[in-house]
Amino acid sequence: MKEGDLIPCKVKKVTNTITFVEMPNGHEGTIISSEIAAGRIKLMRQYVVPNKQIVCKILRIEGDHAHLSLRRVTLKEKKEVMQKFKQSQAINVAFKQILKEKEKEIKEKILNDFKDLSEFTRATKINPELLQKYIPKENQEAIKKIINKKRKKEQLRQNIKIKCLENDGITRIKKIFDLKNDNLKVTYISAGKLSLKLTVEDFKQGKKEMTKILEKLEKRAKENNCEFFATEEK
After folding, report:
1. Does pTM surpass 0.85?
2. End-of-domain residue from the set 116, 148, 180
3. Phi-psi region of 67 (alpha: psi -120 to 50; beta: other; left: phi over 0)
4. Of 66, 71, 101, 165, which one has the greatest count of Cβ atoms within 10 A?
5. 223: which DSSP letter?
């Protein structure tokens, strides 16, 4: 974990000035009242309740301790992090149910090479032979079903403003947005305004893909003497 990361945390203790939480690595994090919500807080438990899962942004790390913020996390970010957290929890439960008494030993073996079980399942999709390396033969088929289970897809959106200075501006804009990507939808909003929607299975990889798409569009716009602006849809 590093500064700026968004992480799921479990609320442990709530006071009027500081909220104590448990981070995914088991270490303690704290949120001061001004980082719970903007303005004066009349009732702290409207925002934080013991044993509740919340999403925090890491402001600063000091040794094993982290200073966190709740108010700097958007609703969209909260939804994305909690969805990943729930998926990760489901994978952990499934591994425990399938592997039973072997679960601890096998999990330790996997975590020596991977950050978590979610990373392992993603890697196994690309390289199915990993199953044979880490999972006993009698459990491979059951684990394979869990790995290949379809996840809810993520959608990333960008608002685009484009202005072409040439007489054939409309033709140039059509050429710029001819990307031939089945997961990308371009919607016309009004003159010079469009919307991009990219559907992906993994949010983090999707962000990288969207960045590449925007870079390509910006380059094409420049080559066609067009002004190009992109902003993330909140």
Report:
1. no
2. 148
3. beta
4. 66
5. H
pLDDT single digits (tens) 57-97: 999 999 989 999 999 999 889 988 998 888 889 899 999 99
Can you spell out the DSSP letters for 199-220? EES-HHHHHHHHHHHHHHHHHH
pLDDT bracket for residue 152 (50, 70, 90): low
Pair 93, 127 in one domain: yes
Residue at a domain's end among 16, 42, 72: 72
- Domain ranges, residue 112: 76-148
Q: CB-side exposure of 51: number of CA atoms within 13 Å?
A: 0
- DSSP-derived pairing of the beta strands 65-69 and 53-62: antiparallel
According to DSSP, residue 17 is labeled S
Q: Which two tokens stand for residue 199?
A: 């559907």
Report residue 106 as tokens.
Answer: 């096998």
**Residue 189 in domain:** yes
Contact indicator for 227, 179 with CB cutoff of 8 Å: no
Angle between helices 117-126 and 103-111 (to 10 degrees): 70
